[in-house]
Amino acid sequence: MDHSQTKQQKPVAPIAFDNSYARLPAHFHAAAVPTPVSEPWLIKFNRPLAEELGLDADALERDGAAIFSGNVIPEGAEPLGMAYAGHQFGQFVPLLGDGRAILLGEVIDSNGKRRDIQLKGAGKTPYSRRGDGRAALGPVLREYIVSEAMFALGIPATRALAAVVTGEPVYRERVLPGGVITRVAASHIRVGTFQFLAARGDTDGLKVLADYVIDRHYPDIKGHERPYLALVEAAIERQASLIARWLCVGFIHGVMNTDNCAISGETIDFGPCAFLDAYDPAKVFSSIDRGGRYAYASQPAIGQWNMARFAETLLPLLDAEASEAVNLANDAIAGYGARFQAHWLAGMKAKIGLQTEEDGDLDLVQGLLNAMHRNEADFTLTFRRLCDAAEGSAGDGPLRELFANAADIDAWLSAWRERTGREPLSDAQTAAAMRTVNPAFIPRNHRIEQAIRAAEDDGDFSLFEALNDVLAKPYEDQPKFAAYAAPPQPSEEVLKTFCGT
Ligand code: AMP
Ligand code: MG
User: Fold this and answer.
1) Where is the domain boundary, 146, 172, 188?
2) Per-residue model confidence as pLDDT tens digits over 117-141
3) Catalytic site residue 460?
């Protein structure tokens, strides 16, 4: 490892911070200065993202080890931890807060959007409780890979600007190398941020936060007759859409606590997340999810549960009459199911090449999923190979191989061909459209694990680099990376994932 980067001259990389959260009432946050580390080393810097943020990429790359470790605080930063509460596996905790994340500040990106820049793993904050404020390198690499992969898949997610090794150990079940990830988010406001204020009975604070969120994330609502009800509805819409998109790529978040549910509608916190290999709606990877609360197919219902917790916090703002406020909230929450179903069905129909609407479409989608489940077919490969089958039955072979009982998929394929025969597009056009929604590459759990092992055990980041490269273009075939499309060998299979906190 080349540690020459640590011998810094005074860093000069300027960041044009414009911090609005720091101006919100004092109890919303607490000052938190990163704790310097001994030997920081920049392992990854996301140049395109830096440019999108309007930052000086050359200067940041040069000074990255110091800045992205928290050793040097760029001018204009106002480092703070955000206060939030949260339901963790259903249990309410009135104060969590950023225990190992420090918001450096906000910038206005090249599209005029306000974005948070946050260091995760940069040391203790007033909210650290018994934690050390640190992150192990493994979870840093995992978050980098998966959050960037989600972006490339077209799914709203926080981004990764940089990853650093600290040169210091962190103590978990075993001693691990420490890391810091620099995360970029539309904001880090969560359902739990609202719950924090609601639990204190702070209606004035709730109004301030709700107005701030409307302004920052839902500006179309401004001037609405009932802006807070409109906020609940808009947040529900984004959450329903987000979770539908997760399901369409086989993503399992793993820890959908209300403190890990961003009000912006971005995917946030990539702790024990994982992707399906074989399709199984009850699949759980997270070691701490013993009851399967956050199983793959439970996610839509949990999204609704989280949105109900959000709506609850705003009851005092929804109507002066308590019973009317409850009615309005209930109606909004009841609307989640239909919204989710519409997004999910549209997504799944696109995956099987359907653009028009017919009564039997839901059954057709469900029929494929049932056959996949019975045959333990790989989720990603099934849909990608279906794109080849769309070009004609000559393309069926590789798809049939995924099904232990090929007759099962044959029966479905004939029903599907009858249905797609009534679609207006040509077979080639249908296949091309399907390839834009059915990725060839997802961040397979075993590949992430291999990349982490090589980095942690041998200081070898080449697998991490390769994985980031291939996942940047998930919808392209990339023959030289063909091995990355494959499911794990039995010996490679990842059975459990860990939060890594
Ligand atoms: P998570 O479920 O991992 O998002 O974290 C839940 C809560 O635990 C949040 O308030 C985190 O800030 C806090 N936390 C997790 N790991 C640490 C750590 N190593 N040090 C301090 N706080 C932590
Ligand atoms: Mg969290």
Assistant:
1) 188
2) 999 999 999 999 999 999 999 999 9
3) no
d(CA 356, CA 361): 9
Q: Which two tokens stand for residue 168?
A: 């210091």
Tokens read off for 217: 């994330």
Give, to the nearest 10 degrees, the angle between helix 379-390 and helix 427-435. 160
Based on the fold, state whether residues 275 and 177 are members of the same structural domain: no
Q: Which residues pair with 117 in a beta bridge?
A: 105, 184
CB neighbours of 330 closer than 8 A, spacing ≥ 6?
Answer: none
pTM over cut 0.85: yes
Q: Alpha-carbon torsion 315, 319, 323, 324, what sign?
A: negative
What residue numbers bound the domain in which 82 lies? 3-188
Q: What Rg do the C-alpha atoms of the chain give, in angstroms?
A: 23
Q: Do residues 11 and 47 both lie within one domain?
A: yes
For ligand 1, whether the C-beta of 96 sits within 6 Å is yes
Q: Please report, in angstroms and rounded to a whole number, the separation of the first and last CA atoms in the chain.
A: 25
CA–centroid distance, 96 to ligand 1, in Å, is: 8
Task: Tell which one of 80, 89, 100, 176 to mutate to probe ligand 1, the residue whose CB is within 8 A of the most ligand atoms.
Answer: 100
CA dist 223 and 234 (Å) reads 14
Give the atom of ligand 1 at the shortest distance from the alpha carbon of 121: 19
Beta carbons within 8 Å of 77's beta carbon, 6+ residues apart: 15, 17, 19, 104, 105
In a domain, 289, yes or no: yes
- The percent of residues in the chain predicted with pLDDT above 70, rounded, is 97
Strands 29-31 and 91-93: unpaired
Residues 24 and 108 grouped into a single domain: yes
* C-beta 499 within 6 A of ligand 1: yes
Q: What is the pLDDT of residue 10?
A: 61
The structural domain count of the chain equals 2
Is residue 225 a part of any domain in this protein? Answer: yes
Tokens of 86: 């949260």
Give the Å distance between the CA of 100 and the centre of ligand 1. 6
Rounded CA-CA distance 454/1 in Å is 13
Domain boundary among 300, 329, 344: 344
110-115, long-range: CB < 8 A, 24+ apart: 110/51, 110/52, 110/53, 110/54, 111/52, 113/186, 114/18, 114/20, 114/186, 114/187, 114/216, 115/53, 115/184, 115/185, 115/186
154 and 78 both lie in a single domain: yes
* Assigned domain for 94 exists: yes
Do residues 12 and 60 both lie within one domain?
A: yes
- How do residues 184-193 score in pLDDT, each as one tens digit? 999 999 999 9
CB distance 274 to 494 below 8 Å: yes
Q: Do the bridges between strand 274-275 and strand 251-252 make them parallel or antiparallel, or are there none, so unpaired? A: antiparallel
Tell me: do 172 and 201 sit in the same domain.
Answer: no
- CA 501 to ligand 1 centroid distance, Å: 6
pLDDT given at position 12: 67
